[in-house]
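Budget justification, computational time. The allocation requested in the original proposal was used primarily to generate structure tokens for proteins on the priority list. As evidence of use, we reproduce two of the resulting records. The first is shown immediately below.
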Amino acid sequence: MHGSSPSPFLGRGEFLDAPPDHALLSLAEKETVLPCRYRDDPGVQSTVIQVTWYKEGPGGGSRDQIMAAHHQDGQTAFGPWSGRVRFQSSEPMVDSSLVILTTEVVDEGSYTCHISTFPAGNFAQKLTLTVWTVPISSLDPVILVEGQSYRLAAACRSVARPLPSLSWDTDLNGQSTNRSSSDSGSVSSHYSLHPLRSMNGQRLDCLVSHQSLKKPRRLRNNVVVHYPPNAEVSGYSPNWFVGMETAMLHCRSGGNPIPEEFTWTRQGGDLPQGVIPHPNGTLAFGRPLSAGDAGVYQCVVRNVVDSSKATVELKVADEPQKEAEPDNLLLIGVGGAAGGLLLLMLVVIVSVTCHHKRRNKKLERQLTVKE
């Protein structure tokens, strides 16, 4: 049974469950079922003696036995197919469908299910199997630096059968270039742009589209643009005075990546004793202020791109400035408003009184003339 060649096809009976055009599609690493279920013509009663599966060689010139089942001798898988295939049914004389347990790309090709019956003869069904692979994809981002020339920002690559397609989902102003190789089943896409700090953190996702996927697969990515820091000093006010406690200067900076190196200096000499620089950029006066603390202080911040510096002139008064109490200021304001209103009323009263006096004198002169 194991080495016999199939007898000529006699054209009786029919095969059930055959796919359209006898073409099958499967995915690599998945289970594949090659259907083969034979039925005699009505009125013909024959017995299936043996079932043999073959894989056609390139060009159809040769073929390899995969698996066979005999109604008495049992089942046998041949050569490299052993452990990779089995019959779907426990009764292969009734349902001769073959199962490839883990499909590989090399399994793509033409298959023949050969049925030997008695007394009707031999019958065969041919199937064509196409094997697709699910895309294996990767995205490689590039760290950019502000001010660089037009360059690659991210590269996306995918391998699959048939060839996948790649696209970019982004609001950035750049350009993509695609390349593909049918031999290796790979496609790549490069996205390039002019780096600006405003692009830092913006979306640059790669979308992989393939017939095996219900929707494009998204490889998420955010652009990284490094740019230098911008130092600023805060915390100082003109009301610093001798004896003031817990005085601090703070060095603040932007930049990407965030600076981790802060350096404080005082113009013309070292930092005063008891003045402590902290790693986060704070300069703490660990004792009450003294007149000797005055001077020009400078903070230098640095990241991997560049450095930036900021200065502040610190003046220390002999004593704190005296400020009017808020309640007194309110009373002064209310009193001033009331005084102004009273003065306005006096002016109005005097003006009205003078006006009436002039009218009365004029009336008296007129009466005297008439008399």
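The second record produced under the same allocation is shown here.
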Amino acid sequence: MIMAKHLRQILGEMLLTAPLDMHIPQLLPSPQELRGKILLKAKKIGGLETCLDETLTDEVSDEDEMTNEDMDSPCTEDQAAQTTNKKSKLSRELSDLVVYCKSVHFQSFEHARSQAKCYEMSSFSESKAKKLAKEAGTEFVQYNTRQLCRTYPSGLRTDSSNYNPQDMWNVGCQIVALNFQTAGLEMDLNDGLFRQNGCSGYVLKPDFMRDGSSQFSPERPEDRPGYKPLRLSIQVISAQQLPKVNQKEGSIVDPLVRVEIYGVPQDQAKEETSHINNNGFNPVWNETLNFIIYTPELALVRFVVEDYDKASRNDFIGQFTLPFTCIQPGYRHIHLLSRDGTAIPPSSVFVNISISDLL
């Protein structure tokens, strides 16, 4: 009750507390219709049907219960019933704030297809989501055209590490929760995906992942209508003013550039240039890296610059990640970001990008 009160007071009119048209939805509203609204995800007593009933129904029911208890029940049973009834009322305060995101336990895709309401959503641990994606990718994609779902990191990740969110995006999961306090590849991919909308709002899934009859599976991308793989060629020309990894006087980096592709399993690939000895100011490579992108709509491209070390692991210098669909052909400067995602001007990589049909 206290939390419900705070939510109402703090969020005010932004908190969605009832269906938009006051009718039981058959389909979820569009993001545009929900623009500017905050939705609460939690367990709910009953369904939206219960929520839309007049409060008078509850009042009459409570009155009848009290009358029956007074007439037929011993004092101890009466007290227990009142306590249970009170707890129910307290929880209902919060329950009534849940509209389109009722949390339910996932049983199976078949059960969800025949029984689930559009406003019910389930949460999947990373291991369960990956297992379902591999074993029933098409069903998972179809499930996510009808309902929202959330995935979350394993509870065994005591170091707050992350799983690869791309695995979840490949089957259309809408809410892919990560440990934002931990920088690294996974957060680079997350930042890269949402960079296309200015890191504000949502990113619309490809049309073949919004179609309820979709036969798309990340394991077999060639089965979908409109399948059109592309060839990506990146000529890594040079880099400019790379930062030092070791701040000792006289320290100079030996840079190399690696391009990594993340997407459906067939698209996972990486290629790298040779390293340049002792030149972080204006190293020149003029090397071309080639890739085939089987599902361009889901692919992310990550540019990574490292300081080569023969005896140990290379040191990270900078990176930049963006969706393949946002890449523009031609000569481009890739402005590098640090490990935590902040800019490190004027460091950049100069490339020439070519995209062509494969078939």
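A brief technical remark on that second record: The radius of gyration is 26 Å.
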